[in-house]
Amino acid sequence: MRENRPSRPSGPRPDPPRVAWRKQMRERVLQEARVLAAEGGWDRVRVGDLALRADVSRPSIYKEFGDRAGIGQALVLRETEEFLRGLAAVLDERRDDLAAALRAGVAHALVEAGTNPFIGAVLTAARGGTDALLPFLTSRPEPVFTSASELLAQWLGEVAPSVAADRRVEAADLAVRLTISHMLLPSPLTADAPERVSRAACAVLGLPPGP
Length: 211
Prior knowledge:
This protein is mainly alpha-helical. 70% of the residues lie in helices and 0% in strands. α1 (17-40) crosses α2, α1 crosses α4 (68-92) and α8 crosses α9. The longest helix has 25 residues, at 68-92. The model has no long low-confidence stretch (mean pLDDT 84).
């Protein structure tokens, strides 16, 4: 007869202790880096301070991230992923009204810029031309600008498939650029930014801007 063997537990296996420790260490370092950047800007974040606050050795930090710039890039990637999850949720809530969804997406981004302490600290410092973390947020191909543009272009492809692909890409690029401009250089017109950005994107798409 065939011996009955206990079934193996379903689901993913837990990480080996070494892998689990590395993940926890990485998260602690990034969390402390976020706090320090929010408090005083990225220019004042030092690896030595991170090592003390996260209770990790400096060599371990350098081994994981490479250098201080590597920490900055990892931090921005982490913040970007969280931001994009929120943006995707906002857009998906209004899939039946493209113009309204665009307005809500722009409003979400502007609220994040005003309430997220990390983003707020970086933008505030950037207006003074001092914060070295800003390039990771805007001018480099990754992660924020390209990731947001790709997310929006993909969403437009789902909700407006009749619009030519090049127009969808152009509209997404325009919407993200205008939104980031309002985040960096707020003006009396920023309050109307969601409506204005939505209208501009709809014009590129050749769709009505909504009521």
